[in-house]
């Protein structure tokens, strides 16, 4: 730090009118550009949603929910088996992904805060989050499908479960770290063992946030197509067996979208609308439950 | 931590009553029997064993994240061994892609991936920054929540639905309006020559840009919100206009984080599969024109994996997957480190 002798304030030259105007114009220009870009971003979203609702709603009918796909050339048919198949795959994925994700989050927040191992795991989870879904698909193909020698619902479930883990881990950890320490200390001070404190105090307090995190992970994988291409593979018929190829809504949308038939395009739009509505409903429902009523923790 | 307890120890629980009221001055007999409280607690699973096993279970689940990444890496290497040995490093420099004669090279896909991702960033980054600036600095408070909700809604739309929309809405627009417009105004660059089918590199880049916009803008918004208000007030107090305040007070401080957010968007763009596969045209050739159909690393896997019958073909495709995996890991790792450096309160360097 160098101490400079104080110089008497010299009167600053008055800013020229030109410079003031330039700065003012620049300011207004940026404001306009910023508003414009927001409009430009919102526009395609609204376009996509409106078009989707318009196309989807006009091609939805009861048969869509009750019938399996019709053979090429025949009108009608639906995606009942795909909706059920997606449900089965997502159920499997949640069954595997959510416990592991939450447990890893608990470890990061309650046992490994500030340790090198904790930071390394946190970093790996973030990196895993960015691994392309298609890579996940071919890895599970190499591991499960090549061993079993056929595509299966189970393989699809595993692929999606792996994609759920990092998101759930990170949200669980973030939510647990917002739980005030005094609550944990109170429980420990009463002689409650650590595991019990974590389960019934920390996790319970953070449960609305953790449930929201799980739903976000669920919503993210519910629309995934790439990891299912070579694992669940798709199926034109009913299938409830876990070691057989199974239909999934995103897969069926993909197959129909790239097909040359108008009738199938119509079904693809209907399927997309159903998929998005299902994702939104799932997320909103759990938000509502998490905010009031049964699932609400001690917060 | 003060939570460690010896389950078998015979330490007496402190009496709740103050000693002077107990009356007797003789030392209390220490019973060797576990106290009822201790018994109650151990019945409820209090003890070192339960705590340790709980911690171990949590640790195993946490370590499984490591295991997953390592497992993906090793399985991809072992399954692509055939093509790794057959072509070596040259695999990434060759542009041959001939499944019939078993001659494979990944150059067209690498070029296609880089082209589409770069173009997508070129379109998405200015818009995303504009949105983030609008949301953090300009937007009236009542509009802030709905607009950020809408941009995050964009992220919730599945990739395949974007693809569907692109196939039926964006492709016709490209073919009839945007394409001819680009050809007329920018045709002199030579980038917009050739036949315009609607599908191709440019269309794929546009849909990619729409998809990575919410990622970049919501992260950038978080980072800009993390800039302390004193910075803004300081710059404003010196007589800056609002734009000068944003430029010197906000953008300069959050620079590293913004670059990180852009790289996360890049990671998304590199690995995006379905929407790109549906509109890029799927043609393994390096073309000069942006209207030309192309191929990306992810879309060649999605498109050809299920028809790869012989082992060399399959392992070449898995090697492409391996390359994609490594590239996205590196890009994501750098991006995360940058975002962490800013949002964790590390001092932002002012050049």
Question: Mind explaining what this structure looks like?
Answer:
The complex is a heterodimer of chains A (299) and B (351). Chain A has 299 residues and is an all-alpha fold. Chain A has one domain (66-291): MetI-like (MetI-like fold). Chain A has helices spanning 17-59, 62-66, 80-111, 116-129, 133-148, 153-176, 181-189, 194-205, 207-222, 226-229, 249-257, 262-291. In chain A, helix 3 crosses helix 9, helix 6 (153-176) packs antiparallel against helix 9 (207-222) and helix 9 (207-222) runs antiparallel to helix 12 (262-291). The longest helix of chain A is centred in the N-terminal third of the chain and has 43 residues, at 17-59. Chain B is mainly α and 351 residues long. Chain B folds into 2 domains: 19-79, no CATH class; 84-343, MetI-like (MetI-like fold). Helices cover 67% and strands 1% of the residues of chain B. Chain B has helices at 19-22, 36-43, 48-79, 81-87, 107-138, 141-156, 159-186, 201-225, 229-237, 242-251, 255-271, 274-279, 297-304, 311-343, and strands at 97-98, 103-104. Chain B has a two-stranded antiparallel ribbon with strand order 1-2. Chain B starts with 18 loop residues before the first helix and ends in an 8-residue tail after the last helix.
């Amino acid at each position: 730090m160098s101490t400079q002798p104080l110089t008497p304030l010299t009167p600053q030259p008055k800013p020229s009118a030109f410079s003031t105007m330039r700065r003012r114009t620049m300011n207004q220009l940026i404001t306009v550009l910023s508003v414009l870009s927001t409009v430009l971003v919102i526009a395609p979203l609204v376009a996509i949603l409106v078009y989707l609702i318009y196309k989807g709603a006009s091609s939805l009918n009861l048969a869509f929910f009750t019938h399996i796909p019709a053979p090429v050339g025949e009108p009608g048919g639906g995606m009942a088996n795909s909706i059920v198949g997606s449900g089965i795959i997502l159920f499997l994925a949640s069954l595997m992904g959510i416990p592991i994700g939450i447990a890893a989050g608990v470890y990061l927040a309650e046992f490994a805060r500030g340790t090198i191992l904790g930071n390394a795991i946190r970093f790996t989870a973030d990196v895993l989050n960015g691994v392309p879904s298609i890579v996940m698909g071919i890895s599970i193909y190499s591991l499960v499908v090549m061993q079993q020698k056929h595509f299966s619902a189970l393989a699809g479930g595993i692929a999606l479960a792996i994609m759920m883990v990092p998101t759930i881990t990170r949200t669980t950890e973030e939510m647990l770290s917002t739980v005030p320490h005094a609550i944990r200390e109170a429980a420990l001070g009463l002689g409650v063992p650590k595991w019990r404190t974590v389960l019934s105090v920390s996790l319970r307090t953070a449960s609305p946030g953790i449930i929201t995190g799980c739903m976000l992970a669920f919503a993210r994988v519910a629309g995934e197509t790439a990891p299912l291409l070579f694992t669940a593979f798709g199926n034109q018929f009913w299938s409830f067996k876990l070691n057989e190829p199974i239909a999934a809504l995103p897969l069926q949308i993909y197959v129909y979208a790239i097909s040359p038939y108008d009738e199938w395009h119509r079904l693809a739009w209907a399927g997309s609308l159903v998929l998005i509505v299902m994702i939104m409903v799932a997320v909103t429902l759990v938000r509502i439950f998490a905010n009031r009523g049964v699932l609400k923790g001690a917060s | 931590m003060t939570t460690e307890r010896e389950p078998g120890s015979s330490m007496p629980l402190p009496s709740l009553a103050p000693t002077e009221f107990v009356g007797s001055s003789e030392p209390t007999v220490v019973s060797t029997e576990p106290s009822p409280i201790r018994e109650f607690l151990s019945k409820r699973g209090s003890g070192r064993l339960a705590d340790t096993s709980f911690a171990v279970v949590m640790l195993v689940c946490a370590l499984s994240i490591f295991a997953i990444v390592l497992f993906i890496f090793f399985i991809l290497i072992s399954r692509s061994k055939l093509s790794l040995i057959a072509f070596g490093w040259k695999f990434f420099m060759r542009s041959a892609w001939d499944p019939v004669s078993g001659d494979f090279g990944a150059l067209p896909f690498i070029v296609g991936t880089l082209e589409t991702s770069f173009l997508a960033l070129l379109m998405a980054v200015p818009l995303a920054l504009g949105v983030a600036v609008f949301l953090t600095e300009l937007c009236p408070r009542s509009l802030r929540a709905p607009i950020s909700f809408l941009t995050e809604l964009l992220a919730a739309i599945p990739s395949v639905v974007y693809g569907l929309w692109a196939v039926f809405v964006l492709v016709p627009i490209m073919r009839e309006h945007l394409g001819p417009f680009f050809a007329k105004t920018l045709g002199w660059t030579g980038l917009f020559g050739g036949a315009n089918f609607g599908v191709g590199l440019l269309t794929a880049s546009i849909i990619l840009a729409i998809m990575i916009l919410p990622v970049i803008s919501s992260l950038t918004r978080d980072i800009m919100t993390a800039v302390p208000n004193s910075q803004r007030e300081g710059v404003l107090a010196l007589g800056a206009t609002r734009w000068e305040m944003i430029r010197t007070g906000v953008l300069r401080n959050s620079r590293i984080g913004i670059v990180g957010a852009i790289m996360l968007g890049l990671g998304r763009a590199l690995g995006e599969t379905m929407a790109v596969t549906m509109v890029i045209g799927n043609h393994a050739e390096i073309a000069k024109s942006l209207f030309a159909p192309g191929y990306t690393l992810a879309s060649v896997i999605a498109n050809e994996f299920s028809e790869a019958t012989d082992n060399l073909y399959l392992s070449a495709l898995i090697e492409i997957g391996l390359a994609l995996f490594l590239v996205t890991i590196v890009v994501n790792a750098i991006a995360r480190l940058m975002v962490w450096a800013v949002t964790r309160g590390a001092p932002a360097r002012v050049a």
